[in-house]
Write a structure and sequence with these properties.
single chain, 188 residues, mainly alpha, 8 helices
């Protein structure tokens, strides 16, 4: 089955013809009801298009195709867009634990174990790379998926505090927009 999908990835599409959803391999297709269920539960604005224009549904379908076929990122069919952009967005979502939300919404989908394995592999590789770069203590080498929920909450609070500091620095640099953020104006 994976060989057929890999052949689809290398198919030549004549110039001027556009890809449609019907051209997509079945391994990546996401039913409409499941997509609306998933989109309604994604945090923030994640259910909208990315900067490059690839819709979130197409992006998730591309990642599901990669997981289901056990293919490499360059083998992604052209109908899903630029494989590098899809990979970058996948990696960002993995860092932010968005795939946890997606996994809960895809309960019962036969591709879910493959998706979870893909995310785990990515996070493990990332963890190994940063471990060698940072030489962190043993306690900090725990993967985010195995960390306690309290640790995740603490990590999110730290991220929020950092973002507030960045916003305050921006307000100091650009005082003309300070009136848009009265709650942060005086360092409250």
């Amino acid at each position: 089955m994976a060989q057929r999908s890999r052949d689809t990835a290398n198919a030549i599409v004549p110039a001027g013809s556009s890809h449609s959803r019907q051209d997509d391999p079945p391994e990546g297709q996401l039913p409409v009801r499941r997509w609306y269920f998933l989109a309604s539960r994604l945090p923030g604005q994640l259910a909208t298009k990315s900067i490059g224009g690839l819709s979130t549904r197409r992006f998730i379908e591309a990642v599901l195709w990669i997981a289901a076929t056990d293919s490499t990122w360059p083998q992604l069919p052209k109908s899903y867009g630029n494989f590098h952009a899809v990979y970058q967005r996948f990696a960002r979502w993995a860092r932010l634990d968005v795939w946890d939300y997606v996994s809960t919404c895809l309960e019962g989908d036969p591709r879910l174990p493959a998706l979870q394995r893909l995310v785990r592999q990515h996070l493990e590789i990332r963890r190994r790379r940063t471990r060698h770069a940072e030489k962190a203590p043993v306690e900090e080498k725990i993967a985010p998926a195995t960390a306690a929920p309290i640790d995740r909450v603490h990590e999110l609070e730290m991220r929020m505090a950092k973002m507030e500091r960045v916003l305050r620095a921006m307000l100091e640099a650009f005082p003309q927009i300070a009136e848009d953020f009265p709650e942060l104006k005086n360092g409250d």
